[in-house]
Please model this.
Amino acid sequence: MSELLSSAHSTLIARELGIREHQVHAAAELLDEGSTVPFIARYRKEATGSLDEIQIAAIRDRLEQLRELDKRREAILKSLEEQGKLTDELKEKVATAGTMAILEDIYLPYRPKRRTKATIAKEKGLEPLAQRIFEQGDLDPLAAAAEFVDSAKGVETPEDALAGARDIIAESINEHELVRAQMRELFARAAMFRCKVVAGKEEEGAKYRDYFDWEEPVAKAPSHRILAMRRGAAEGFLILRAIPAEEEAIALIESLVIKGKGAASEQVRLAAKDCYKRLLCLSMETELRLEAKKRADEEAIRVFAENLRQLLLAAPLGQRRVLAIDPGFRTGCKVVCLDRQGKLLHNDTIFILSESGTAKAAATITHLVEKFGIEAIAIGNGTAGRETETFVKSLGLPRNILIVMVNESGASVYSASEAAREEFPDHDVTVRGSVSIGRRLIDPLAELVKIDPKSIGVGQYQHDVDQPQLKKSLDDVVMSCVNAVGVEVNTASKQLLTYVSGLGPQLAGNIVAFRNENGPFRSREELKQVSKLGPKAFQQCAGFLRIRDGENPLDASAVHPESYPIVDAMAKDLGCSVEDLMRDESMRKKIQLAKYVTDTVGMPTLQDILKELAKPGRDPRQQFEAFSFAEGIEKMEDLRPGMKLPGIVTNITAFGAFVDIGVHQDGLVHISQLANKFVKDPNDVVKVHQQVMVTVVEVDLQRRRIALTMKS
Model:
């Protein structure tokens, strides 16, 4: 059994996720063996009880957290043992601590410290005085303190001794487990974000003016506001605190440490107040702000990941001959022609503004459409996009040619990337960008995987959130989408192959190199000849790679090679070929699945096989739907309140959805305007790349803001 799989861990994770322990065990063992999340979800349903990708990823992530906790636990136990402080009681406390915060609270009194006020006081011999005062008996603190006056130690007066004793008491209260636990609960429940503008920064920090005098409960603050306030503070425009009412916090400490009403208790009361102001408040606020940041990050990353998934799984036009245009005014429009596989056939530049240029541009486009048998025209939606669309539509091209505006976010990033230079070493960035626009129409997923997801334009405060966590989450989404759709091994780019289960950059490059040297793969079995692609990698990737018109018809499906013998047995039992099974529904209906159940293959896998036989390599993405913006509405100045316009959802945030209505500035449909009913999550109403009808509510030309509504 792997070190990952302690019984306590699997019990805890099962309870948290609402699944069974054996499912956690199975998923964790498979992960520990190097299986990927998509592979486990698709091809190991019997082992995990049909856990989905979200559940498996949650098991993986929680296991990582618990292992980190265990590592810290071991380090603390070792430190305590080296200090000679490890008692059985302390060992039990450390062993059962359920969170990092509790674990650190236990260790706090024993952690090696820099010199503090309390350690200095202890060096002066004031610890016995502090202990006597903290007992809060019938004691005259000033008289007791007089016994500790010692000029040689720097204690000149009884008041000096009392001050040192209070420093020791304050630190002791700060390190008290119960005090910290209850103070943590108070901060979590009652702390308020209090935000003020830095004096003199009102004009420079105007974009944060919503937070110049802002207050709200930390527990209820939404992700986008937490990240906005933190960014404003980091940039020096805002002062941000996250604290409860001071009186309530100090009263809580006093309720836990004050035992009476005598003079000694009054000294403890002073120490408690000092403890909160100097030590505990700062510690708890830091902890709370980190926790709030973590919560805000998780929500922002969740929204980003969901948007990215929707964008990657946008409907592809499919294999069509495409003319793609990257619009431009001054430098002209870069035009490229692509074949049905997205291969670059021709590039040119046209100018659509000048009279002489317009006539030549019209002739060029008409000629290229005819010469290359163009079936669709893709136009980037950036600067001059609508003008270019209007121009192309005026040319009287055949009606069967689709003219589509394509979101070009990130195309410039791709065009300057190493991947683009590798693909098109003899062409400049303008040509590469145009190719990217055209390929996005043919197959968005295959093209967008070449771009850092953060450059695609569907995030919210993506530069403010935990970057390793963001990358991990987005990589998960890209891998999930790529493997859900499947990849044609003989046409896929290195970048697309990189995200196939079990591959990665090196094996993806090796597959492309093998393909270039030996020609198209004829079977999945041939993958085993690729350099460094061993049995484990083959097991993980084979089911997600497709080979059309290969030697085995199942190679074009999502049936895993390990299940080929099952399909062969089905065909043999029915006295037909595998091709007959895939072609003839009546033959498939005769298959008695229960007959093929074994110890390792159950009904979930057999039902998946049957679905694949019916629709080999089926694409889970929706069918492509043509879309056009409203004619004559090309810039913000054309907008008027009350206009009803078609649009495309480009980004979804916690507070609403941004919609492209074709005026070079996305409008915002606030969450309150998404539907006639209350909406908690915008994703419940709209998806990225969805076509919607919106009504213009307000146009602010000065601030470049458009308010829209989808209410009827």
